[in-house]
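Q: Hand in one record:
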Amino acid sequence: MKTILIIVHTVLSLWSIGSIIYHGRRPSRSIGWVLTIIVLPFVGVILYYLFGVNRRKFKFFNTKEFEQRKRFSYGNAPTSNQFKANFDSDIRKKRLNLLINANSNTSATRGNAITVLQDGGETFNTLFNAMEEAKKFIHVQYYILERGKLFERMLELFQKKISEGVEVRIIYDSFGSYTLRGRPKKRFQEIGVKIHPIMPIRLKNLLFYLNFRNHRKIVVIDNKVAFTGGVNISDKYIKHKGELGKWKDTHLKLEGPIVNDLHQVFLKDYFFASNKEEFRIEDYLFEQSKSGDVHAQVVAGGPDSSHPTIMQQYIGMINQAQKSICIANPYFLPGEAFFQTLKIIALEGVEIRLLVPKKSDSNAAMFAMFSQFEELLGVGIKIYLREDFSHAKILLVDDDLVSIGSGNFDIRSFELNYEANILIYDQGINQEMKAEFNALCEKAEQLSLEEFKNRPRWKKFMEGLSKFFKPLL
């Protein structure tokens, strides 16, 4: 029996390593998977097959749905050309606009009003108040829709609005919202909500869908106001739960022409999640009017995008930096391309500050993140550890560029998740966010290179060990 197991393990390991060599796109990721297979007999092979296989190279990646998703488009949102931003006098912004347009098929628009929501209580009060005003429809998309106080509040509100003739549609990620199965989902259906999981995980598609997530958080109300950012429907944002306490995050309230572009992202996902429910697009996308003076752009990408949209957005932004870069994120594992770009810009003299939580909901991600810090500190990047846990995904560049959304600075958001960010070209919002960022850095612990080098050996060991599992994080 032992001999048979050795033979089976050897064959599977050799097959897996051969697949990595033949189909691998990045040497660092390939080496990580090879080491995982060697260090974890059998388990490493299973993990690679579930999470590491480059499915773009296999026929079963090109399923009918993914091919349809690639081709699917409602065309340009019916927003008048008068609201398309003109950056001819600013080459930095013009290049970013062209990059995102090529990746997401969205143009920067002007005439928007954007409100930044920093506190969980404020976010949900603003969200539910806007839902109360709905006259036609409420469209909801979340990665995590979790039972609790907020869940019950949403259910009660939807029951009221449906009785008033408002349509309510919900789509959710089947992995992130795994507790929604069964009775919780039926409670929505019983009051008339049209609710569907995105990429439902079933036995027939387990190997295909398991490693992909729809990480977007989008709410659109009557196509007049929209919300997006990093906040999920979970009570952890409004009350202290567990060791991390009450989570912090950043969300956006959007009004103006940009609502059409964000709504298109939802409608595309809903169309496929609902098994192509028929509806008239003109009933949900229609002409917008000016709501403010902010220029902004939707950035949406996923595993079926032609390019790694979120990664290219972030690299495109930091490449435009002339003075400063501020990054806030709980999972800073950006991969080699972004990592090296950041180091180059730091060596060119641009001030770069990174703000991360001292504690994390994922110890593996935390140790893997800390394993990069010595190298970053060595090129002059300033790193701050905040005591509370923040789930926000924020990038500030110079005095006029801001990105807020669902996209983390990690390989999962860059290549495996469907994400949505808002790129904001505005000095006022940049200064508002930078003031908050500066205040948080003042209260946080700043790492020094010399002290960090002297951290305990066990931490260095755990950081080194975590590198084996970076492909899974």
User: Anything to note?
Assistant: The chain has 18 helices and 16 strands.
